[in-house]
Write a structure and sequence with these properties.
The complex is a heterodimer of chains A (302) and B (321).
Chain A (H helix, E strand, L loop, with lengths): L2 H11 L4 H4 L6 H24 L16 H5 L9 H34 L5 H13 L2 H15 L8 H12 L1 H14 L2 H8 L4 H30 L2 H6 L8 H10 L4 H28 L8 H6 L1
Chain B lengths: L8 H14 L10 H28 L2 E2 L6 E2 L10 H11 L6 H31 L5 H9 L6 H11 L5 H8 L14 H26 L2 H9 L4 H29 L3 H6 L7 H10 L4 H32 L1
Antiparallel strand pairs in B: 1-2
Helix pairs in contact in B: 2-13, 3-13, 4-8, 4-10, 8-10, 9-10, 10-13, 12-13
The chains are: A mainly alpha (302), B mainly alpha (321).
Chain lengths: 302, 321
Amino acid sequence: MSDATLTAVRPVAAAPGGWFRNPWRKPRFLQAITIGYLFWSLVPVVIAVLFSFNAGRSRSTWQGFSMRWWTGDQFDSLFHDPALRAAMLQTFKLSTITVLIAVPIGTAFAIGIDRWHGRPAQPANFTMLFSFVVPEIILGVSFFLLFTYVIKSMIPLGTTAQSLGLITFQMSYPVIIVRARLLSIGPEYEEAALDLGAKPNQALRRVLLPLLAPAILASVAVVFADSVDDFVTVRYLSGAANTEPLSVKIYGAARGSPTPAVNAAATVMLISTMLVIVLGYLLYRKVSKGSGDANVASFAQL
Amino acid sequence: MASQTLDSGSKRKRRKQAPEAEGSSGALYPKWYWPSFTSPGAVWLVFLFLLPFYTILAVAFGTVDPAFQTPLPVFQPWWWSFQTFSTTLQKFYGDPAIFQQPAIRTFLYVFTASMICLVVGYAVAYYAARYAGKYRILILILLVSPFWISYLMRIYAWQSLLQPDGYINRFLEAIGVIGQPVNWLAGKPITVILGLVYGYIPFMILPLFGSLDRINQSMLEAGRDLGAGPSQTFRRVTLPLSKPAILAGLVIVSLPMFGDYYTNNLLGSTKTSMFGNLIDDAVSESGRGPEAGSLVLILMVIVIVPMLYYLRETKRAAEEA
């Protein structure tokens, strides 16, 4: 501790426990825990990214910088290994399909549930939220059993089964995000449009959907990022090795003897999710400009 | 995540009652208009959420093809056989209770890891909400970022650090804590527990941050003015106000831990296998389909109460907001 802090603390500390009781003392202890936590939570990931540039085969001993595991090696690098290339493609394919189907269905579901107070609305909403909190292994195994033993002849394990599973698991995100937005904008704008003579579809297209744009955008970013990272559901539903996305390949390799090409694969996942989230946030801020809730905190609460 | 916004509709309903009663806008919409928005999602849930769920029952209470060893699901409840289910249940307390150890371990690990999540998470959330000052946005971004890093990559990163020749051993040797490299990945409970904490603690911090951030500063000042010391203010004002978030956080971190098998598969061994591993092993082996179904059912029974509690609490929080 430096002299300055010592002298600053000493007068109060003269009484037993005085420093501790001083309500204006600096929260050094909490600060240390917070910095320590952030360090602990993020530094391992940074190290894993750095090791994708390792010159040797090891993922735990640094042997110099090289692009070997990204592009250099003709057989084992991320962009040359056919299995890893196929996995990358599969990851983006599944995430795109999931976004294209889960976000429209989820958005429509949220609008419908919010405006329709009929009897079946409550159980439908409950089931949707239930699918949000159920541990993923339960959903993954139930899909696996369904596709393997019941409708095998119609939908074999593979891309279609994986997409169906992912969409089911991801659909609740747009529902929750869009509904929160519906709550904050209220029904008044739409009622005004109707009073001014708009037809229901016009009010929807020209008033409600533009107002919901930030929430829909946020849903797209969240669903895409979460689909890229998904592992439990897509692993159970991947048929042959050629439908395994990056996450499943990383899991398989991590249990064997991985090379830094796995680190490179994980880095690709990291960059794509981060890119989508940052892009989503920037668009979100642009679209919701003026509505007063366009800050990191409100985006983070999603 | 999204704990505050989950089911925020109920509040809305109250507010909407007035205009509806006057019939200002409701009349313009045909009766089928809003239900048609809900139906694609609802139909989807019936066929791809409820049907798979029912399949678990059909497989767990079904039979196995004697020739091919593949499960034959039985969808008619009146033909269900509960033999596999009771055999599976026996493995938890029967004579060769081979599932007992993993089950006990699961509860111990989940409890310990959740408590560590709470203590560390509370401190971090408290600091971020109360003292972060001009670094608030930066800290918030750093706290949220683990959500967007694949769980697998984060555990893989630790697996690399914990290798016998990894940086953790080298660091501990350098400062003289250990004499020779420790094999952290050979089924050490502490490795698996800390792995679970590492994986799920962000889910604890965000609801806590949201709750602590909303506490009105004047409440704390009132406590102080009335003569309470810092620790008393914390115990009697801050802590009770953040209690719903603590409980929600505990549920939301422990639910996925109960079904987690990959953390142990990457950081532990069979000596630290958990409930999730029992399920994963049964799914991966042919002929054990009904057993896998039975295990998933048992897991469902374990987690259903906290799940319903969480759904009810978030609904109530939305109504009160």
